[in-house]
Design goal:
Four copies of one chain form a homotetramer.
Chain A lengths: L12 E4 L3 E6 L11 E7 L1 H11 L4 E7 L3 H12 L3 E7 L8 E8 L2 E7 L15 H5 L3 E5 L8 H15 L2 E5 L10 H13 L3 E5 H7 L10 H9 L5 E5 L5 E5 L4 E2 L14 H14 L4 H16 L11 H12 L7
Parallel strand pairs in A: 1-4, 1-8, 2-6, 4-5, 8-9, 9-10, 10-11
Antiparallel strand pairs in A: 2-3, 6-7, 11-12, 12-13
Helix pairs in contact in A: 1-8, 8-9, 9-10
Pfam families (chains A, B, C, D): PfkB
Function (chains A, B, C, D): Catalyzes the phosphorylation of 5-dehydro-2-deoxy-D-gluconate (2-deoxy-5-keto-D-gluconate or DKG) to 6-phospho-5-dehydro-2-deoxy-D-gluconate (DKGP).
Protein name (chains A, B, C, D): 5-dehydro-2-deoxygluconokinase
Chain lengths: 335, 335, 335, 335
């Protein structure tokens, strides 16, 4: 195995980073100017993945910071109801607000997000608020790149990485680049690289890896070059996403894995990566092969993109298996 | 008359200040944590008043700044459709966002607002973006206190006051204190006082006037003391609101005016002040007495608080007159 | 008289604003790159003028804020030793530093200043730290334009102006424009104009008045237009400096006053304006004519520009009179 | 050898970080309040060490940023005259100023510094301004901890570390903790640790290492524990300074080295660490033993603390050898 998970831990999965609110357009297939009502969901990539893992039956926890307002309390209540341990979800006391993401769905393939990230509570998480004990009690720590976008959340995430290394907790880095908050592309590259050096599993798009290589020479944008660099540090698995052409999982033993994809009646593209990540990591924890884990992730993603929401649509294992079976029976076709 | 409006101007009313988005809870009479959907409206006190004036048949314009995003374009489109001149509504190019106000309606009398004011586009309006010509072409300029809450909007509003004085445009100051953006109570007092010194009509709650008097001695919180101070500057009318006990309009000639109130089936309290202001100023422009203008404002306010929205519920003159008549006929009772 | 000073006050002069340190090049007539040693003096225009007034025998006080460090303590000690009342010189507790001004004297006519104004203690003075009682006990309040350059010092200075108006204390505004700290020319114009509206005596260069008129039409840069504008507010005397061509004092009664100048062996130009101001204001307080006051100011300025320092070189009345007499005897010639 | 320097490089030493100005009290043995004149020197720990290395005959270069003013030009001229390559000393264009350090020498053992670090040019160095080629052409890169104190200098220094690793340039980290600019102790720990992980030689005081271990358990403050941790990363030599009790150099092979000390007629303590570092690194480059290198550093430090300045007093090899010989002959005694 490219990555070995420690045994005998209280939690199977803990994530650190963004907790925010999605405000999804109810009237879709039009510009947001013409959308009059929005539905509220818990959002943020690491929140979505954690909810996904919990739905898949995993024992999960979250390390993050919420605003001291109605939005923050809604997030806390939702996570709790999903069975996620929130002992390390702390409440900001400085007047920060909950990050927002208004979604615009002009068409299934033309989606965008209007972000509110100024003074966001999640970026106020400080190193002293990261529980070493919780990380030591988890088999896996997921770090989202957005947690690195500003101080003190940046230092909190870097400290979480050190705790994970110290206690042998497997680290997954989801680069999750968002062009907000970051001050410059050089800053983004600097901190994503620092986190990647300390990660066992790294997941990102080709464009995200390009950005991290801005001070290097990889003119052909070679996946193999990229993967080998991180295998030279701590990584065992590097997944590089190529959009419609699918994802490739590179493993330290030289492997290169692709999974088959499934048809879906796409409503929007948001949340595909998060549900894929949850499905894939669930597979690894289950001891499945890389291919089977990727396939499971792909099916989970199909379910989410066929739905109106992200977090709320995260499927159970039964739902994913059922989706795969229905695809195999030809009951689901792209639309 | 306590205030004389100049004649022969292209516009009857121009406002400067906040343009934002209200996201009103669809499921009401509960805490916002339990509200799942929100409806989008144009918001911000000066925007509401301008929409109200336009609905009442007045020729209006707006001086403000909007974000370069879907929310900003929605605001621009809405104002234009309402017949408001937007030649001086400029678009921010620095990445500012549209201010948001999520409303929470726990009960008709227990309402609150969750504000997003960080990096708000309206506060980026700069002095060079204020049209002297537009102010010179208007009979009245309304300045909202929130425009004074941060630079460069603060200097833009102060310059607008100078242009108004230079050209004899009547200035209305709506104090509209919001505890966001301001850095200290002393700062609030300083700039509200500077604006009040240059205003012909000043509208605020007793609490707002108290705040402006923090460096003075008015221990009895005397309305008369407050009004006289501003009559010593430029004001002709000072309206002091006492919540449920009603408003009193003080005039420079020593007058003290109260208007009768009307019953209403209250949904929420938001927007009462804005519709009152629109109705009252419409009355003054119509040459009505202070009492009749106040009465008209009160009825306009009743219509808005009986409705789900603020801007969208602003009534026409026919609707207000109809409301008063129905009250007189006993067809409307409080509820 | 264009300006009447109140009688029976404890202090004859109080200034508000900048207290800083001058570091004057010991090796002069060369670029600062080649200067190896510097001498420390108390500096800042209002500090210099106050020291000047004290040397001229006036009972003075200062309203300002100093850093909690050796530089701050040096300033406090120096003012105290000069007989200036420092009860309203407060000490910053936020880690601010003392503003610095390194002087470069390439030649008597080619002088420049390298300023350190980031996080300067004097700009941290807040409205609650301004003593109304002290202003009420003074015949005259001098406000320096640099006090308006940033918050909260800006609001503190504006409040001082209100206290002065309330208690009939004569206000002198020394525009003293410095292109540091200010965020934009529009901001500078806005606040200098607000302060000038409330001042009895306004002193500035033609360029400073031009800057304040950026939103007006005075295409000929007419001094008379400028002066009349402020006479329309509160001013009784407006002094406009035209560099080598001398200064003109305009008075509300239509007067236009120029004073003769004196020869001097110029070392540097720094401090000329401050010593002129001290001499002129001393003359007004003495009940002298405008001309005689200006002449006295000119002679005081000659003494300072013939010396290495500013504050330390401020003359006594005897020294100024002696200088004038020596000039009249032809003992001093330019050089 | 614990550390092997690459051969065949154009430069023997390149430093990245702080370039500033020391203003040293001329009148010493008194509080700074009583010091009236100051002498200007180039300062900043990495600048001092580089000047020291250059004086010791090493081919050196500097990576840094200077203000676009007289102070910046003085620094550039001084470095150039010392034979230091300044091709990577760039000039700020944002209005930053040169950092200042006023020294106060109350007694030889009671010295302090008054720092001006707001808006300092050296902290504006950005990653794109770091020459990979220059680092690739150097045998050794010295990083000062103060370069990590703020962005973008922080990212620039971290990138320099990556370039050094890529090209096999030996990295020396001088922790050089200064309680300015850093926002929190946690932030300091985070970035000093990240830099230490990538360094071959780490130099700091026991207190500095304590600070870096705030998230660890080293209750006995064990030097051995500290050193072993970094040997587990990349380090070959860890020097821990214990003030008067001397320094200990730990080496990866288990060695623990102390050097004898020399007497000195101490004027002040500033600059001791910088001259020690220059002397020690010169010894390592010369292929001397750790002990001999430490001894040479100690003697260099004695010369600097016996003098009024830091940078200007950095000795040549002849001067250091002469000092050691004079000590051995008993010609120098403590005073």
């Amino acid at each position: 195995m490219s990555v070995i998970f420690p045994e005998g831990r209280e939690f199977e999965f803990v994530a650190i980073g963004r907790l925010c609110i999605d405000l999804n357009a109810n009237e879709i297939n039009r510009p947001m100017e013409q959308t009059m009502t929005f539905t509220k969901y818990v959002g943020g990539s690491p929140a979505n993945i954690t909810i996904g893992m919990s739905r898949l039956g995993r024992k999960t926890a979250f390390i993050g910071k919420i605003a001291d307002d109605q939005m923050g309390r809604f997030i806390h209540g939702y996570l709790t109801r999903e069975g996620i341990d929130t002992r390390n979800v702390v409440t900001d006391k400085t007047g920060a607000v909950t990050g927002l993401a208004f979604t615009e769905i002009k068409s299934p393939t033309d989606c965008s997000i209007l972000m509110y990230r100024d003074n966001a509570a999640d970026l106020k998480l400080s190193p002293t608020e990261v529980s070493e004990e919780l990380i030591a009690s988890s088999r896996m720590l997921l770090v989202s790149g957005t947690a690195l976008a500003a101080s003190p959340s940046r230092e909190a995430a870097l400290l979480a990485l050190d705790y994970a290394r110290k206690h042998g907790t497997v680290v997954v880095l989801d680069i999750d680049y968002r062009p907000y908050t970051w001050k410059s592309p050089e800053e983004t590259a600097a901190y994503c690289n620092l986190a990647a050096e300390k990660s066992d599993i790294i997941v990102g798009t080709r464009e995200e890896f390009d950005q991290m290589e801005r001070f290097e020479r990889n003119p052909d944008r070679s996946d193999r070059y990229t993967a080998e660099k991180w295998f030279g540090c701590k990584a065992g698995i590097v997944i590089i996403k190529h959009g419609k052409e699918g994802s490739i999982a590179y493993t330290k033993d030289g492997g290169e894995h692709r999974a088959r994809s499934f048809p879906a009646k796409v409503v929007k593209t948001f949340g595909a990566g998060d549900s894929y990540a949850a499905g894939f990591l669930h597979g690894l924890l289950s001891g499945w092969t890389i291919e089977r884990s990727m396939e499971f992730g792909s099916a989970a993603a199909c379910i989410v993109i066929s739905s109106h929401s992200c977090s709320d649509a995260m499927p159970t294992e039964t739902q994913v298996k059922d989706y795969i079976e229905r695809c195999e029976r030809g009951e689901i076709t792209a639309g």
